[in-house]
Amino acid sequence: MSLENTFKEFQAVAYNPKKCLNEYKAAGKKVIGVLPYYAPEELVYAAGMVPMGMWGSNNKNIGLAKEYCATFYCTIAQLALEMLLDGTMDQLDGIITPTICDTLRPMSQNFRVAMAKLHKMPTIFLAHPQYRRPAFGLQFTVDQYNNVRHELEAICGHEIGEEAIRDAIKVYNKYRQARREFVKLAGEHPEAVSAVNRSAVLKAGYFMEKPAYTEKLEALNKELAALPASDWNGVKIVTSGIICDNPVLLKILDDNNIAIATDDVAHESRCIRVDADETGDPMMALAKQFADEDYDVLLYDEASNQNRRGEFVANLVKESGAKGLVLFMQQFCDPEEMEYPYLKKALDAAQIPHIKLGIDQQMRDFGQAATALQAFADVLSL
Predict the structure, then answer these.
(1) What percentage of residues in the chain have a pLDDT greater than 90?
(2) Alpha-carbon distance 201 to 16, whole Å?
């Protein structure tokens, strides 16, 4: 199969999640919606159900969700609720609402109240610890994950055994490894992988069943690895932010010969950096996996005064061979807005050019972004 056809298949999934949901339900499968991020999807898989990522929508406007949300909540969370209220996601059998950020903490209760009021699906609350690495933090994570496990058992109708969880961890480790390899190969072959196609491949992973997705991605990786060395004549950048999956926005990068060398995006690489131990107590393995996550603006850092994350991002740019960084900042994302001065400090110290673009998922006009990116590309090409 040609690369073009392969990318079209990934796009068909990435841009039509409701079609995937309908197909799962027609096949008699139960599906659990999973909001961002660091949720233990392995438990959903171990239960024999399908986890489906819910990262908002680029094709909807906020209407019904205004009844439950403050106007300053980020559009990712608001549009996830909008799809639950307007019937788009009615076939879900439940949702998991992590509380990893300042919006999702109160918003989790909005989801619960809305779903109870409309007699829809159960809402599974997930609280992560701030101190995730000490023994008490690990135990708190295990306890929270066990709460999720028990509520999933009520939905699927059977116990989720430890061996099933270990098997799920193996499936997800393989999935993460394939995604990391794709990110690397896409950065090495921008002539073959456009920014639009790169995003579609990664986004499809939130909607496909993991074994099928991994098999398809490994086949794509094999094709990319066999390509001759790239003769790319454009500029390479690193992207950062919570999410940047709008194909209209990403096409601006392609139109200006801007390639993504790698990323520091929550929706893409931040969630796949760490694998879980495939031996021992699987619940503790999942807790340790979360504890080992690092360099994320949403995670507490005991050494934050050293600006470790800012330096990590700066090193990511240098090691990738990129010439600059584009920060896609979600409007009303307090953690990212508060972090920006420190990120800028690290980038400036490393003499790495960057631009910050404010975005949200209700944007339809990207004229200003196009002008900014074109000018940035011109600067980098010099």
Answers:
(1) 86
(2) 13
Regarding pTM above 0.90, the answer is: yes
Percentage of the chain beyond pLDDT 70 is: 100
Angle between the N-to-C axes of helices 282-292 and 162-188, in degrees from 0 to 180, rounded to the nearest 10? 30
SS3 string of the chain? Answer: CCHHHHHHHHHHHHCCHHHHHHHHHHCCCCEEEECCCCCCHHHHHHCCCEEEECCCCCCCCCCHHHHCCCCCCCHHHHHHHHHHHCCCCCCCCEEEEECCCCCHHHHHHHHHHHHHHCCCCCEEEECCCCCCCCHHHHHHHHHHHHHHHHHHHHHHCCCCCHHHHHHHHHHHHHHHHHHHHHHHHHHHCCCCCCHHHHHHHHHHCCCCCHHHHHHHHHHHHHHHHCCCCCCCCCEEEEEEECCCCCHHHHHHHHHCCEEEEEEEECCCCHHHCCCCCCCCCHHHHHHHHHHHCCCCCCCCCCCHHHCHHHHHHHHHHHHHCCCEEEEEEECCCHHHHHHHHHHHHHHHHCCCCEEEEEECCCCCCCHHHHHHHHHHHHHHHC
Q: What is the pLDDT of residues 190-218, one digit of tens each?
A: 999 999 999 999 999 999 999 999 999 99
Residue type for 245, please? D
Q: Mean pLDDT, the chain, as a whole number?
A: 95
Average the pLDDT over 62-83 and give the result: 91
Q: What count of Cα atoms within 13 Å lies in the side-chain half-sphere of residue 85?
A: 23
Over range 24-37, report the average pLDDT. 96
Q: What is the CA radius of gyration of the chain?
A: 20
Tens digit of pLDDT for each residue in 324-340?
A: 999 999 988 888 999 99
> Is the per-residue pLDDT at 1 higher than 70?
no
At residue 223, the pLDDT reads 97
Spatial distance between the Cα atoms of 304 and 199, rounded to a whole number of angstroms: 30
Quickly count: other Cβ atoms within 10 Å of residue 362's Cβ. 15
